[in-house]
Amino acid sequence: MATSSKSLSEVRGDTMRTERTISKELESGSTSVDDEELESGSTSVDDEEEHVLNMKEIFITDNEAKESLLKIYGQVIQMVNELPKELLTLLSRLYGDVSSKLKMNATLVSEKCKLVVAGESNSDMNSVINTVLGSEILPNPHVLSPGTICCVHTVPSNVEGYFVIQMTNGSSERYSYPKVLGAFQGLLSDKMKGTMSQRIETYCHLPVFGNTDSVTIVSHPGGNNILPTEFMESVDDASILIYVVNSACSDGIQENKLMQMCKHLQSDARAGNLNSFDPKCIMFVCNNWDIVEKKERSDPGAENRIWKEIVTKIQKYFPGISEHDQIYKLSTTEASYLHVLWKNSSTF
């Protein structure tokens, strides 16, 4: 690619949060939403394969960081409980029941790892995640009712998988997850005929995360220009948020959704919510970049112009977002190549 920015295949393990911190820009309220309202690279094949197969290491690192944090909480709680009565009384006057607050905060450090996916209309975000995971686990939106939320929960390899279709009328149906590789999409399509879905809950083994039941993936529909309440709620305790941009859209990036995300995270941080999401753990994926590259041939400079426009609008609402470490390009060709890498890998 012409620019020096990373492609999705270069995603490093350090994109996953290893501890929950509140970003400085949100903590201080320095994001530009408030101001606005007041006024009105290429890599080698070996490198690509190494990075694509790094998801399991990311998950392990995340768990290790949480275990370390819980040990620290335990040590601090013990230290507070052993303080002389006079110091403990003074501490309580200044900060309230410190011991209870520490215990409550420790319970918020969940061993679960949640990956939340959202995106723009027609961004094909489920396909992007399926590529990263090396499995057609997230349904094709065309077989689902509009607004359907998809959740995937990992299970150990010795546990029978299944999926549940929750209907808009409140009823639900449970089915066995197919053992044949790649058969899930067809089976779901058959079961969806004549039904109106609201949510799809899938429980299956994903080798990319190892033999665990601690990973959850939540995919919210692109839909219209408004982010649903369910998305805002699910982001709060997420380990990572992947937001997929439709690079080929002639109208440019959907700025309204960026503003909604920024305002939600900003208000959450100001409320002092320890479990609030850290914007450093957002990954923006610019899908359909091959279409942008084709446009470059007939309109020289278009690729760089579109890239700068996307980066500028993202950083307008998230000033701390790194162009080089948190915003990636993905083309249809690259997605197909990465999918082949997964299928042919002997790692799992």
Characterization of this structure:
It is a single chain. This protein is an alpha/beta fold and 348 residues long. It has a domain of 220 residues: Rossmann fold (3-Layer(aba) Sandwich). The chain is built from 13 helices and 9 strands. α4 packs antiparallel against α6. The longest helix has 27 residues. It is globular and about 75 Å long.
- The portion of residues forming beta strands comes to 15-25%
The low-confidence parts are 7-53
First-residue to last-residue Cα separation:
31 Å
Tell me roughly what share of residues is in helical segments.
40-55%
Q: Output the radius of gyration.
A: 22 Å
What structural class should be given to the helix and strand makeup? alpha/beta
- On the 0 to 100 scale, the average pLDDT is 77
How does CATH name the architecture of the domain at 8-63 and 111-135 and 206-344? 3-Layer(aba) Sandwich
CATH topology of the domain at 8-63 and 111-135 and 206-344: the name is Rossmann fold
CATH class annotation of the domain at 8-63 and 111-135 and 206-344 = Alpha Beta
Q: How many distinct beta strands?
A: 9
The main sheet orders its strands as 4-3-5-2-6-1-7-8-9
Shape: globular
Q: What is the overall number of helices?
A: 13
Q: What summary fits the major beta sheet?
A: 9 strands, mixed
Query: SSE string, helix = H, strand = E?
Result: HHHHHHEHEEEHEEHEHEHHEH
